[in-house]
Amino acid sequence: MNVPRQPNQLFTTSIRLAAVSSAVPCSRMFVRDILDRWKLGDYIEVAELVVSELVTNAVKMTGITDPEPKTWDIRAEHVIGVQLRTTNGSLFVEVWDRIVDAPVAKNPDNNTEGGRGLMLICAMAKQWDVYRPQSGGKVVWAELELGKPAEPPPLSSPPLTVHVPGMTTAPRGATEKTAHLGLIERMLDDSRSEDAPPEA
């Protein structure tokens, strides 16, 4: 007798930010607000560390490293996308940038400053990888195991507003659309692989 599979609950939300240094604290704020809303407060600290490392790498790869960039320095190509997704007992933290090159894990010694981001992600995440969408760029993602499912916010609750400083908001343009498409492609490909029948 075939027992119908229970559909996986899927919650997802994303934000586009200018690829500047202030995107890192803004992405942490985004994670904190969303996971609190999904009743996943126990996972905020780890998810904040993971998103900090992924966004830091994305800014270094594609953005402006000047800590105080001028408004006219930020163009449509200086965009990153951050997506949170929970399904099937896992939380996925996903960051899109426009550079296809994968981040390289380093093996720093005790005297080296920095270079430990991917080591931290390896220690905290169930797995991580790089996804290259057809729309361009790459999505670096990390999967965190959840001990409980996310809870949907009440239907009557007001829409969540994350207050992001103006200099951190992504410029409107083709690259913002590409970031959105890349994150959507990653989500759809992942859901297709979950629904695929197991190989014999």
From TrEMBL:
Residues annotated as signal peptide: none
Domain Histidine kinase/HSP90-like ATPase residues, every copy: 26-142
Transmembrane segments: none
UniProt xrefs under Pfam families: HATPase_c_2
GO molecular function (one): protein serine/threonine kinase activity
Alphabetized InterPro entries for the sequence: Anti-sigma-factor_SerPK (IPR050267), HATPase_C_sf (IPR036890), HATPase_dom (IPR003594)
Entry keyword set: Kinase, Serine/threonine-protein kinase, Transferase
Protein name: Serine/threonine protein kinase
